[in-house]
Task: inverse folding
């Protein structure tokens, strides 16, 4: 759902994000408020007349060109190609900041109107007229398609041959394949289609290429049709697997195994196939094909054994899992696969709260330098704490904190502080908690540390700290402070992006949102995209009411925000990061049930990022991700309830009611209730029955499902931030 509460963008779209002092960025003419309003109305044909009147009468050349562009593009969308071509021609003046878009869509309109030759001519000098345009590759592909459509396929192939980046762009590969096909060079066309299909498997062009390959497979027959090479199939499968598109990756790997049964890649494909099947929860099928060793490929044989460990863990067969781990450790003790298998085994037993078995595997892993070894060292320290082996826990946690960039440093500091407390070293505990609360102010454990400090009575500083805890306090002083926040968090900071976002900003301001989004994908396709670009995108999305997208973009731009207090970062950033739509609804429903509305806001931020139309794979819906059966216990009413859950009031009513019940069931402990909200009450009851926790933070730290543990920590962190933002009035950082 798009929340069009604002007709046009405010400060950001007038150039505030790109120029100091909020002035318009040089060379980026902005659309006037009048044009923005008319462009908004022109989303419907009924608004075209007024926009045309404006285009005909406005004196400013840029305003005139932009008005005609909006008209032409809307007509192109409506398949009124002759009108579109006429208006886009008027829009393609040199002064227009969207002249390249006007030229491109004018050619597209000509092609759609059955004039491909004229369209190709229109694009002949596109690169010369617009040397910096992000549309250059797409324009070249369109020109080649137009030449092919008009019977000049050899000319199309010549044009494409001059472009060195053809194989880096799926639209250019598709254009070359179609030209080859029309030239009667079908077998060569297969190669280009296969490159688009395999090298860019998640692009729109991949689906077009697949359809054309199916036709060519039939037309050429088995004797002439060449399947993609083993290397291409491997690239496609591994790209899809990395994106967790398991079904498509599985089909690709099975094609590879059938087409090339004697390829050197067979071992790799079999392991990949098993991983796809595990991703589809088909562990029994995953075991097939992994029985025999890959003697000629030690690396993949180690991966085979590690994958078997995953399969047996998924099937709940720890005996077989342990046998495979023993074999893996004996044959490939120093492999990455062995480290991964040990980590997975430790995690498996941790999920069962079988700490002793988990410890055996983490101990085998802890001496390495891998990420798995780092996690193992943390887990060993935590298990020692749980088991009340205080000296061992202190030693392990101190060792862990001695590398202050490791992931669990805030957790380790908190538990060191709690150990100091339990040993009577209250002054030392306070010193640890002060460091933690100051260095990680919005971390869950930073918040817990602040609460512990409030509970302590002021102590008398001894002449010397205890010989046991003094080194620990000294160690905390070595934790480096958070680096200065980047200057681009301020909207008035002069951007280093140049013209990268100019067209996106302008298109958004003209209500051409889908076109802006499409163009943004082109801009962001560069792997070196700076985080500043994501920050700017977050501002654009927020101004357009696209709250979920805005939050995701801002988090991506600056993911370590919880390390910074309010006073170090401007208010505008915090409001982007922690928006509060639906606050009135949340406050009303929360107060009616005795809930903290900040807790509900934190939960919504994690569940849906304030997207009322969010639907999970489990069919949970809306802001609080409520299941239809929660809103309607009767089966007959669930379809109706599912539709209504997109309504914010309805959703928050049932979501907050369910959360209230969970909090009551767990005697007011939010950590337990939130874990049950995320993972199910049965899991939480089981974890509580298997363990004896001294405080809720211990429970949180011990949650065996990583996603649930992170979820609970982040909801409680966000609840604290929302409370401070909406009710406490903190002091914020200032922009220079």
Result:
């Amino acid at each position: 759902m798009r929340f069009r509460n604002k007709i046009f963008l405010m400060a950001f779209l007038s150039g505030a994000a790109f120029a100091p002092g909020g002035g318009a960025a040089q060379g980026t003419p902005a659309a006037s408020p009048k044009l923005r309003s008319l462009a908004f109305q022109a989303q419907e044909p009924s608004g075209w007349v007024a926009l045309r009147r404006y285009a005909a009468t406005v004196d400013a050349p840029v305003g005139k060109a932009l008005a005609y562009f909006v008209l032409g593009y809307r007509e192109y969308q409506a398949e009124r190609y002759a009108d579109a071509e006429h208006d886009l021609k008027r829009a393609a003046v040199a002064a227009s900041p969207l002249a390249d878009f006007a030229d491109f869509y004018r050619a597209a309109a000509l092609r759609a109107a059955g004039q491909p030759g004229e369209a190709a001519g229109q694009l002949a000098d596109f690169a010369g007229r617009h040397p910096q345009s992000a549309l250059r590759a797409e324009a070249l592909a369109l020109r080649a398609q137009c030449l092919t459509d008009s019977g000049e396929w050899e000319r199309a192939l010549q044009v494409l041959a001059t472009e060195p980046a053809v194989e880096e762009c799926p639209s250019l590969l598709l254009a070359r394949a179609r030209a080859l096909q029309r030239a009667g060079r079908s077998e060569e066309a297969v190669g280009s289609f296969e490159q688009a299909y395999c090298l860019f498997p998640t692009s729109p062009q991949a689906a077009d290429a697949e359809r054309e390959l199916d036709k060519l497979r039939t037309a050429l027959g088995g004797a002439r049709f060449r399947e993609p090479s083993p290397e291409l199939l491997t690239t496609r499968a591994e790209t899809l697997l990395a994106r967790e598109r398991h079904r498509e990756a599985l089909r690709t790997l099975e094609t590879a195994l059938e087409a090339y049964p004697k390829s050197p890649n067979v071992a790799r494909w079999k392991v990949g196939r098993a991983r796809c099947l595990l991703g589809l929860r088909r562990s029994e099928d995953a075991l097939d094909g992994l029985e025999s060793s890959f003697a000629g490929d030690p690396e993949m044989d180690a991966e085979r054994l590690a994958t078997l460990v995953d399969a047996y863990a998924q099937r709940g067969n720890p005996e077989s899992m342990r046998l495979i781990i023993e074999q893996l450790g004996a044959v490939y003790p120093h492999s990455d696969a062995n480290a991964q298998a040990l980590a997975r085994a430790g995690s498996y037993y941790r999920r069962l709260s079988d700490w002793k078995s988990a410890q055996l595997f983490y101990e085998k892993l802890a001496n390495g330098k891998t990420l798995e070894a780092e996690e193992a060292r943390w887990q060993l320290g935590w298990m020692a704490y749980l088991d009340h082996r205080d000296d061992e826990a202190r030693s392990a946690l101190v060792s862990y904190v001695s590398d202050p960039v490791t992931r669990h440093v805030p957790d380790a500091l908190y538990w060191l502080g709690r150990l100091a407390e339990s040993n009577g070293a209250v002054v030392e505990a306070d010193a640890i908690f002060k460091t933690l609360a100051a260095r990680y102010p919005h971390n869950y454990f930073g918040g817990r540390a602040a609460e512990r400090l409030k509970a302590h009575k002021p102590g008398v500083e001894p002449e010397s700290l205890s010989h046991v805890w003094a080194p620990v306090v000294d160690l905390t002083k070595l934790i480096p402070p958070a680096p200065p926040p980047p200057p681009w968090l301020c909207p008035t900071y002069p951007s280093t992006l140049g013209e990268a976002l100019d067209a996106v900003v302008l298109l958004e301001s003209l209500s051409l949102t889908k076109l802006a989004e499409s163009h943004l994908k082109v801009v962001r396709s560069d792997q070196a995209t700076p985080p500043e670009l994501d920050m700017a995108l977050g501002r654009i999305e927020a101004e357009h009411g696209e709250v979920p997208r805005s939050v995701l973009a801002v988090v991506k731009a600056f993911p370590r925000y919880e390390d910074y207090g309010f006073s170090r970062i401007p208010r505008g950033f915090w409001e982007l990061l922690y928006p509060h739509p639906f606050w009135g609804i949340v406050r009303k429903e929360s107060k009616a049930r005795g809930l903290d509305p900040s807790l509900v806001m934190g939960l919504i931020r994690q569940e849906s990022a304030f997207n009322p139309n969010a639907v999970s794979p489990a069919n949970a819906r809306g802001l609080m991700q409520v299941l239809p059966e929660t809103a309607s216990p009767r089966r007959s009413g669930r379809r109706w309830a599912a539709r209504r859950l997109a309504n914010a009031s309805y959703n928050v009513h049932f979501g907050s009611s369910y959360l209230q019940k969970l909090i009551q069931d767990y005697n007011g402990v939010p950590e337990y209730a939130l874990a049950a909200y995320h993972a199910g009450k049965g899991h939480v009851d089981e974890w509580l029955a298997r363990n004896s926790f001294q405080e809720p933070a211990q429970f949180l730290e011990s949650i065996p499902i990583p996603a649930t543990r992170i979820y609970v920590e982040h909801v409680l962190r966000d609840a604290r931030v929302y409370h401070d933002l909406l009710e406490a009035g903190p002091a914020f950082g200032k922009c220079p």
Residues 548 and 609 are 5 Å apart (CA to CA). Residues 32-114 form one domain. The chain is about 65% helix and 0% strand.
